[in-house]
Each structure stands twice: as C-alpha cells, then as structure tokens.
Specification:
This protein has 340 residues and is of the alpha+beta class. The protein is built from ten helices and ten strands. The longest helix has 30 residues. This is Mechanosensitive ion channel.
C-alpha cells in the first residue's frame, strides 16, 4: 500500500531538560556563626540571641545589632585576656633562663610579646569574620597617621630594640645624660620600655627619657665595659705645709673610706699653685657608682679634715696685700686718727 506524500512527517517528541539551579549558601562567619552555634544548643538561649539580633541599627547597607556588639566585646575581652596571660607566662619562663643575661631576656621578652599580640589580633579578626579587604581605605588612612602622628612612637620602639640588641645601654647601667639646657642628669637605668628609658637618680626622682634621645645624644655610660669609676676630690693646703706630709694624710684619708678600692690604689696629684696655697686632687676608684659619688667625696674630705687638725695643718684662707701711696690726703687721715 502506497503512503501519501502529503502525510506530515513525525515530529520528534520534546525531551524535558532539567536545569540544576545551585543556590550558594552564604558563608557563616563572625557573629552569625556564633549565633548559629549558640542557638543550636538551647531554644531559650536562641530566643535571647534572636531578641538581641532584632535590636539593630541600619547604617546604609550595614546592619549593626546588639548581638553583634556583644560578640565583638566578648571576643575582644577573650583575646586580650589570653594574649596578656601568654605574655606573663613567657616572661616567667624567660626569667628562669639563667644562661641569658638581663639584656637578652628583656629583648626576647619584647619580641615574644610583640609576636603574641600580633597573633592575637589576627585570631580576633578571623573569629569575628572581618574582611580585611574592606578596610583598604581605613588601612591607608591609618598608615598615613602612623607616618605623621606616630612617627616618634615607632622611632622610639625601634630605638629601644636597637639599644637592647647593641647592649650599649642596658638595665642596671649608671649613665649621665645632658638635657637641652646643658645640665647633666645622673642615675641608674631601671628598665627599657617600648617608648622610654626609666632613669632613677639618687634622690629617687625617676626620669623617662625617650629611646631616641639615647641614640642621637652623647651619653656617659659609667658601667658599659667596666663598673670601675674614678672620683676626683680637690683639696687646698697653705704654702707653709710640707708637701710630702700633706700627700700622706690625703692618701690615708682616702684609704679609710670603705667603698674606695685598694686596686687601683688612691693617688694624689699636685694640680696648681693658687692665690691661697697648693691645690691638690685626690683620685679614688669605686666599683658601685649606682650608690652615688658625692657621698664618697664627702667621706674623704671629712677624714682628711680630722687628720689635718690632728697634725696642725690649717685650711688656707684668702690673703691680700694692700699697698698705700704716700699722699697728702693719706697723711691728713693718719694725723686725724692719731688725734682721736
């Protein structure tokens, strides 16, 4: 049987194509992640969290809720507490390291503390889910503020680290530094901080000197390579005094002071001839400048005074010779005095 040519061709049956729509679930981090974790534990706690989350403030496209504030404060408190505890623990462990001197322990302690706080900052940012790329503008402004406003602070921080690494100035050293008026400040270094060095004087005044000042200004370090310090005690005696006897009494007075070292021994130098007598300088050595130098000078002078009185040597007094010209006015004055 023949098929008609007008019979329409069979059309293919349409096949149903399934399109898979992948709905990406937003990544839960920060306050949202903590909210999900807390709400899943208890319905009551979840209701409280939902209530705090509904109390929100809309600022542009950003939404800040009371729950976000609670989470940020809690995380910051926890991170700061852990970082502070870790810093204290590292300090105690380093204090037991007897092979390290005080300067090395202080340097390692500061580096470890800086590392701990850096890690704490990064952990806090990760827990809160803060996207650092969103802070590009803020970080640029913050870097500009550091460059201008905090330049001295970071300069003092680097200077303090250099001082500890160089060991030119370390805790326990006795130094003398001049201020802007040229007056010297003498004292012992108690500690080297991030910003300044603590210098304590003999009258228990504590000066905080910026670390940069110790880097750029001239500093007298009396205990850099050796703690032996020489003290000069000036003394004058009349011209009628026997020089050898006077030198012997000065050496005896210097040796009688407990803090004066026997080696190097005290010495006496004839310094000059003054208007009133011989000028001597007694040189004595001590090994504990942190205990002061003026008290040593005082003890030497008091002992010498007793020895000079016992041996009939007097302290020279100012002497002046007056030459009067023979004039008529002078003769009239002498006659008037005689008549009286």
């Amino acid at each position: 049987m023949a098929r008609s040519l007008n019979t329409p061709a069979a059309t293919p049956t349409p096949t149903a194509t399934a399109t898979a729509v992948v709905i990406e679930e937003p990544q839960i981090s920060g306050a949202d992640g903590i909210k999900e974790a807390v709400s899943s534990r208890s319905d009551t706690v979840g209701d409280v969290v939902d209530t705090l989350d509904r109390l929100a403030l809309q600022v542009g496209s950003a939404r800040l809720s009371l729950w976000d504030f609670v989470v940020v404060v809690s995380v910051l408190a926890l991170v700061v507490t852990l970082a502070w505890s870790a810093s204290r623990l590292s300090s105690r462990l380093l204090a037991r390291a007897k092979r390290l001197d005080l300067t090395q322990r202080l340097l390692i302690e500061k580096m470890v503390s800086l590392l701990i706080w850096t890690v704490a900052f990064l952990v806090g940012v990760d827990v809160l889910g803060i996207d650092l790329t969103a802070l590009t503008v803020f970080s640029g402004a913050f870097g500009l503020a550091i460059g201008f406003g905090l330049q001295k602070t970071f300069g003092n921080l680097i200077a303090g680290i250099i001082l500890l690494m160089d060991k030119s100035i370390k805790p326990g050293d006795v130094i003398a530094i001049a201020d802007q008026s040229g007056q010297y400040t003498f004292g012992q270094i108690r500690r080297i901080g991030i910003r300044a060095v603590s210098l304590t004087t003999r009258d228990q005044k504590e000066y905080l000197i910026p670390n940069e000042n110790l880097m750029v200004n001239q500093v007298e370090n009396w205990s850099y390579s050796s703690k032996n310090v020489r003290i000069q005690v000036p003394v004058s005696v009349p011209y009628a005094t026997d020089l050898e006897e006077a030198e012997g009494l000065m050496l005896e007075a210097a040796r009688s002071v407990k803090r004066v070292l026997a080696a190097p021994p005290p010495t006496v130098w004839l310094d000059s001839f003054t208007e009133n007598g011989f000028a001597f300088v007694i040189h004595v050595w001590i090994t504990d400048p942190e205990e002061g130098t003026g008290n040593v000078r005082s003890e030497v002078l008091k002992g010498l005074w007793k020895l000079m009185r016992a041996n009939g040597i007097k302290v020279p007094f100012p002497q002046r010779d007056l030459n009067l010209r023979d004039t008529e006015a002078l003769r009239d004055l002498i006659e008037a005095l005689r008549s009286q």
